[in-house]
Structure formats: structure tokens, C-alpha cells
Amino acid sequence: MDTNHQLAAIFQQMADVHTILEDDRFRINAYAKAARVIGELPTDLADIGAEVALLAKVEGIGKSTASKIAEFLQTGKIKAHEDVMQRIPHGLLDLLQVSGLGPKTVGLMWNQAGIESMEDLKEKLKTDELTALPRMGKKSLDKIRKSIAFMESTGGRVNIGKALPIALWFIDQLKTLKQVTQVQYAGSLRRGKETIGDLDLLVAAREDDSKTISDFFIQLPVVTEVLAQGQTKSSVRTEHGVQVDLRIVDPQHFGAALMYFTGSKEHNVAMRQRAIKMGMSLNEYALTKDDKPIAAKTEEDVFKALDLQWVAPEMREDHGELALAENNKLPKLVEVADVKAELHAHTTASDGIWSIEQYADFAIDLGFHTIAITDHSKGQAQANGLNEQRLIDHIEKIRAAAKKYQGRLTILAGSEVDILSDGSLDYADDLLAQLDIVVASPHAALTQEPKVATQRMLKAIENPYVTIMGHPTGRLINRREGLSPDMPKLIAAARERGIAMEINANHWRLDLRDSHARLALESGVKLAIDTDAHGPGDMDELKYGILTARRAGATAGDVVNCMSHDQLSNWLKSTRP
Ligand code: DGT
Ligand code: CA
Ligand code: CA
Ligand code: ZN
Hints:
Elements lengths: L2 H18 L4 H16 L4 H4 L3 H4 L7 H13 L3 H7 L5 H6 L6 H11 L4 H7 L13 H16 L4 E2 H16 L6 E4 L1 H4 L4 E2 L2 E6 L5 H9 L4 E7 L3 E6 L4 E7 L4 H9 L2 H13 L3 E2 L4 E3 L2 E4 L3 H7 L15 H6 L14 E2 L13 H10 L4 E7 L11 H17 L5 E9 L10 H4 L4 E5 L8 H13 L5 E2 L17 H11 L2 E5 L9 H9 L4 E4 L11 H10 L13 H10 L3
Parallel strand pairs: 4-7, 11-12, 12-13, 13-14, 14-15, 15-16, 16-17
Antiparallel strand pairs: 1-3, 2-4, 5-6, 6-7, 8-9, 9-10
Bound molecules: 2'-deoxyguanosine-5'-triphosphate (DGT), calcium ion (CA) (2 copies) and zinc ion.
């Protein structure tokens, strides 16, 4: 985890814990603001260094926050944080993970009902006694019960957006050892799955050095528990609650080991069967024939010796990838570098923290030709959604910015229009007609019955001004189940209309999920991969959307964001009356 993320998490935790303790609002707001500002910062605070005066120059960071940051950069801790953590039972932190449970409510539960842990809460939820708490009705209790049941059904898997930075941090640490010649993450993370059971790291090194390496690994500061330490395999648990497995292999076997530990298990089984059919045998050390090694050093060598194209990790799920690889028919999967347009971004007009110009400059830096500004519609009052008059004014502003950037970047006037619970859109058609692009997404009524949800989405897709169906289930990974509409029906309707379906790249959403995106592609529906950016940092999320698209087998040709400028503008026109 990089420094900014660590610090943002610490400040957020201080804000939450002070809220639980009902401490003064002023301090809570200051910590919450610090968390927000640091989380969105484009520069790495570690690069600025532990100098209070310099840190305080960063916009949005005051003196007192700056001195805490300096303390963290010097010591790896913040005393005020450690002190406040002593004042609550740590079990309360688990409760904050429950969707629908904020720090205020957790504080009430602790003070007035003596709840100190998830176990306590579950016990109390067996009856309705918690309705005695202020603002806690039977409906709220049901929501909390549902959230807990959903969390438990996820089996402790970690979101990829949390797992990837942790893996990269470990890799950076391991790279500092001169004994390590190669290091790579494997497992479900390398396959780009939306959640990760545990992290699998693979290091190439001489056998003599493995003790030095595993000693270093288990003593890293984020390690809270050592689950196993052996000659070639060690396992630890980290302060983020993630298990990390480290395997140390001989450089000569690195490719075979990487292939094995990347999985999936099902893909490995198919590979082994193929090897056997060809009179060979495959394990985590090598591909061999009559006990003589044929290939082991790189994955490419092993695939080649089995008469296969190299299969991208995201496709290794035994979904027919070997048949494609055998016939040289694997798709050339889309990459982050193929993306030339962002079509879903929120500015300060609604709930974003960047202006139109800030997005435009950033898009130019990324080498994009187009960006669409799509603020929230009026139904999203909590996100400061725009009413009709504000949208009309905003369109004017966007047009003015577009003029200013003419020749360098196309700026499209758009909206993320709320799909209301009955499927009608939040603006009338004559207003939608003034926009270049319309992303229609559900934000509320996300517990509807599947049949009702299907009708709702179908009605939205039929609106002639919709260009992209945004995050159609509204799920939040590990947090909210969202809608379960009949996806084949939505996809058929989207195809009929010629509109795109979004893979929202935000790591909490990834909606369309991999399997839905695959269905869309199979029906010839184009994908849009957008970050739903609200400010700096958010556009880094693109990689998660790309991984999801790759898992679905998408090529650049399947993704509207990868079209050339003219293709995109023609496609947009083709979707509208
Ligand atoms: P996860 O951690 O649940 O998100 O999923 P993976 O795929 O990372 O699974 P993990 O960590 O249990 O094992 C990493 C890889 O090692 C797995 O993808 C394939 C390989 N592997 C582990 N156990 C077996 C096994 O019993 N048979 C085979 N063929 N491969 C295995
Ligand atoms: Ca794993
Ligand atoms: Ca593992
Ligand atoms: Zn949005």
C-alpha cells in the first residue's frame, strides 16, 4: 500500500473512532477531511518528506495534519491514532464494515446496548430488542441482518482493489534483496479476479538463499502473524487481514511454477491432461518427457512445448482457452494503453472534486482524444445531482470548455441519468436530446425483485437517448448484492438499440462483472469501460475494468473507449434518433 492510502485509512479510522466516542465534531470533521484530501492527492506524500512546513503547503492540509503526517513518515505511526484506538474495543471496527452501519450507530450500539463485537451484534439481532435504540426501526434491523448475511457469504475474500496494492508493496520489498532474481504475483490476483482469497507471491532464488528471503518476508512490518515458515513456502497474515503465501523456486523452474500457482486449478488440470495426451507430464517444476525436462524456465517455453499459444492469465479458467490456443485463435485482449476516451466522469457540479478543465488536462496527459462530463441527475440529491436548470447551465459551461480545448481534446456534454425505480429516466427526452452522451444507471431501489428490475432496465434501454447502460446491477462487491435483472434480456435489448453496456471500473463496482461482460460480447454488444471518476486517483481504477474485460475475452475492437475519435463520434450519433 502506498503511503497516501495508508495515511488516508488512518485518518478515516480516527474520524470513525472519534465519532463512535461522540467526541467533538470539529476534530472529527478535520480528520475526515484529511482522509479525503490525502486519498485524492496526486502526489506521493513520502516524496515530500517529513517536513511539516512543506507538507502544510499541500492544498487542503493544515498544520496539525501535516505534523501527524510527518510523524508517520518518520516513525510509521501516529500517536494520536494509537491513543484513540485504545479507547474502544477493537471488535467495533468489524461492525464498521457492515453496509448500512455508520460510526454513529456503532457508537450507540456500544454505549446503549453493550455491543462490542460482531458476535455480540449477531446475538442481539436474534430479536428486535435493538429497536429500542434511537432511529432504529425494524426495517433498519432487517437491512443490517441482510448485510451481515451477505458479508458472510463472501467468505472473507478481499477486493482486488485492496489486494493489488498490497501485492505490489510486497514485491517492492522483496526486490530490495539482492538474492531475489525474479518476483511476481500469481494466483487469482494475476488472473484479475474481482476478489482474492489469498495472495500468492513467487520468488526466483538459489536454494541456499531461501532462508534469508523467508526470514526477511516474515519480519516485514505489515506482518501480524506467521502461519507457516518452511524451506520453500511461507505464509503470513498481514495487518490488512490478508493471507500472503510466498514460494521460493529455482530460477530454472520459474515459468512452470508461475504457471502452476497462477492457476486456475481447472486450467491446470486441463493443461496436465494435454501434457499426458502428448506423452509428457506437467507439474510445478517442469514439463518432462521420460523424466527428462522439456520446458520449465518461462511460461512461454511450456506453452510452446505443448503446441499452444501463450494464454493470458485472465483467460485461464478452463472456459475453452486451450482449444483457442491450439488453433491460434486466442483474442488479442484489450489493454489499458488501448483506451482513448473516458465517458463517465463527475465534476464539482455534482459530487466530484475536479473541474471540467482538470479532467480535460488529465485526459490530454493520458493521450485521450475524448472525455465526457456526466454529472448526476436531480434524483441523486445526496450526490448534489443537477436539476433541469443547472444541467442547462452546465451544458453551456461544458460547451465553452470544449471550445477552449478544440483541436486538443473533444469534451462531450453528458449526464449520468438516474434510472428511477419504474424505469423512467430522471430528465425528459427534450433535455436528454441536448446532450452528446447519456449514461443511464440505477442508484436507488436496489433491492427490487429480479422481474421488476428486468422491466425497469428494459424500459431505460428503450429510451432513444440512452447511449450507455451504466453499472446495471448496482452491486458493491462484498458490500451490497444489488439487482439481479435477467442479463440475457438486457443484453438482447442493448444489442437491438446498438448501445454499449458499461464495465464500471471502480473496484467496488466492476459492474458488468466478468461473466456478464462475456455474455454481452457473445451477443455482439459493445462494452464501455469507464472509471466513474469523481477526482484525481480515480482514473487509476481503469486497470480493474480492463482486467474484468480481459476475463471476458474482450479485444480493443469490442470497447467503445478504444475507438478512434471519428469512430466514437459516429457511433454516438448512430445510437440516437
Ligand atoms: P483464491 O486464492 O481463492 O482467490 O484462488 P487462487 O486461484 O489464487 O487459489 P490458491 O491460492 O488456492 O492457489 C493458487 C494456485 O495454485 C491455484 O490457482 C492453482 C494452484 N493450485 C493450488 N492447489 C492446487 C491443486 O490442488 N491442484 C491444482 N491443479 N492446482 C492447485
Ligand atoms: Ca490465492
Ligand atoms: Ca494461496
Ligand atoms: Zn457515476
